[in-house]
Amino acid sequence: MKNLVLILLLLSALISCTQPVSVKKTLPLSEASPESAGMSAERLARIDSMLAQAVTANKIPGAVALVARNGKIVFYKAFGKADNESGRDMKRDDIFRIASQSKAVTATAVMILWEEGKFRLDDPISMYIPEFKNPQVLKDFNPKDSSYTTVPAASEITIRQLLNHTSGIGYGVIDGDDRFRMIYRKAGINDAFTAENIILSENIKKLAKQPLHHNPGEKFTYSEGLDVLGYLIEIASGMPFDRFLRTRLFDPLGMDDTWFYLPEEKAGRLVSVQHPVDGKWTKFPKTFYDTDYPISGAKTYFAGGRSFKYS
Predict the structure, then answer these.
(1) Which range marks the domain in which residue 73 is found?
(2) Tens-place pLDDT, residues 231-251
(3) Which residue, among 99, 108, 292, 92, has the nearest Cα to 195 in the 3D structure?
(4) Which of 49, 105, 122, 277 has the most Cβ atoms closer than 10 angstroms to its Cβ?
(5) Is 102 annotated in the active site?
(6) What share of the chain is helix, strand, coil (3-state, %, to 5)?
(7) 85 and 52 together in one domain
(8) Tens digits of per-residue pLDDT, 96-117?
(9) Residue 128 belongs to some domain of the structure
(10) Domain co-membership, 45 together with 144
(11) Catalytic: which of 16, 100, 146, 201?
């Protein structure tokens, strides 16, 4: 009996060590003088001058800069225009697209579920998304019609490999390999964000059928793996990806301005995507995506790789 109790205690200790749960809470940042945080007001003023000059010289359309130390905001200022065509000034609480910084948010959500024992990091993703079973690696490719041949991959793709970009999955329109850009385009794979009526599960199941760059775990290839993990989160949690993030991350942390698609009352704070044309900053045109996707269109696709907006 004593041995059984000892074994149970050891197992409990092992679980507590391998499944850490953070309970530390931090206070909201508050604004204060640079001196109160041990910083130089004179040196911080150089940031002010640098960004103001960059706007005046037409190097950037605008910016918001924030510096904090020891829980105190010591510099926080907006510069330039959020939208030059309409003349809208940049404000401190304007909302920016954070692109691939979204991946860190998705990875955090994955680790929340890992801590809860929903899966192991070295589980094959095919345990949860069967379409990824028996992956194939690209062998030969014909650029004339985007046809190709494959060979069986040496192993299955794991959750860990999706997190660290060693799965072998590509990245479509921004892929460094022309072959994969053509293959993904032909298959109708959505690469990140869209105004079209697409849902995550459908896109990921199509992605699962495409060839890999290389055997899983063989090397680093920047990929749509975090989009795949967004779908895993839906499966493991039983909740839509956006709802899981809202209830488990954003609301508890007070991240009220972090969204896939902005609520109507926040839409006016979205900073325009701008580019220089004849010396003037103008709104970026529609290319492979519509820059207005956060506030228009179907608002149905929740990509974990590079979709969030944040203030």
Answers:
(1) 27-94
(2) 999 999 999 999 999 999 999
(3) 292
(4) 105
(5) no
(6) 40, 20, 45
(7) yes
(8) 999 899 999 999 999 999 999 9
(9) yes
(10) no
(11) 100
